[in-house]
């Protein structure tokens, strides 16, 4: 069912499948309620008590009806349209099988908005890249919007968009899978960050996982741009398949015949939009720490240039991008410690990147719930940590034998954050400072660097990675304010 304008919503019966607490279902319900839907049925397997904050936001709409604590198949069979949460699996789902029309908040937005879309997908680095791109557009005086998997539904700003307001969308594999039959998904610029094994408990194979990632460029043509990771084997596949103009980004200088962006030996980033015309993109030192974040900022900076931003402005603007919550987020310090929250690190490779993001050994807090991922590559990187503290979970259970086999010492696993932080304080309070000489720059500190980078999911102990990060920050502030 195609919605061509807001008037088409009037009189519809719409079922919202998955209210949740992170905004997508709530935004969809509010959107349809406010634009004249006859009935908006909000259904979720969670109870009203579990969803209390979201329920409270919708109580005053007379056309909203709640069906919580389980689904009723009639709510799907009789609805004109079902708005599906991306975290709901379609395969084998009896409720979705009964629906006449299935859409998502993203697909509805794409049907109704004329805004140019700058889209980002990948395994890690999506949120940092979209955030940096959005920051750059705003700082360069271009009105823009940011939404998608970064927890802001684009329906919240739909009516403010037009053909001159670029919309930056972070798109997960699940969201892209739901857009497989949406011809309106045609990004002016599509960035695909590094591909790593992820969500294998959902997909069962890398091929199925990557197939959903490929949807991002399915409808592009030669007027569009596809930005691929040159250091990633999958990047070569994407470049061969897309009909868009291919630009690359790499941690190393690109071959002279290729266009894109790269990191030079001195740490600066350079850009080549046409062969033979190399320009500075980023200075050697930028606000965010680590090679991985620098590459994300570089990819975003390249996209700014492709969108038409004056290349001369980009280095000065983008060197000041400060990052986003839950991605190597510096949030608290004492005389002895500096704390970073990297709770969005939900795969082992992301935790490994955190270990290597700083110019001196860190105190690392890692571990969590397993989602059928391989921790083999992470274990050797953990040797580099000055001290290692483990949070309990099934993923940690897989990691511990690897640590024992390579004789890497660790503390824990701990069942709660307060006990873990007490252990960090106790074990590190009298630890001698490192005598290593490091370059004097904005990331150098005599304080110990404590990084919370789980490298796993959060189910059981926390609601999700955002709840995990917020509770870690709260626990740190509470513990150190009381000593």
Distinctive features:
single chain; 483 residues; alpha/beta; 9-stranded mixed β-sheet; 6-stranded mixed β-sheet; 17 helices; 20 strands; 19% strand
Instruction: Give the overall shape.
Output: globular
Which residues sit in consecutive blocks of at least 5 with pLDDT less than 50?
434-443
Structural class: alpha/beta
* Binned strand content: 15-25%
The percent of residues in helical segments reads: 25-40%
Query: What Rg do the Cα atoms give?
Result: 23 Å
Tell me the total number of β-strands. 20
Largest sheet: 9 strands, mixed
Report the mean per-residue pLDDT as an integer: 92
First-residue to last-residue Cα separation: 60 Å
Placed side by side, the strands forming the largest sheet appear as: 7-8-6-9-10-11-12-13-14
The number of helical segments is 17
How would you describe the overall organization of this protein?
Helix content is 31%, strand content 19%. With 483 residues, it is an alpha/beta fold. The termini are far apart. Strand 4 (81-84), helix 4 and strand 5 form a beta-alpha-beta unit. It has 17 helices and 20 strands. The strands form three sheets. It has a nine-stranded mixed β-sheet with strand order 7-8-6-9-10-11-12-13-14, sandwiched between helices. It has a six-stranded mixed β-sheet with strand order 15-16-20-17-18-19, sandwiched between helices. The chain has a five-stranded parallel β-sheet with strand order 3-2-1-4-5.
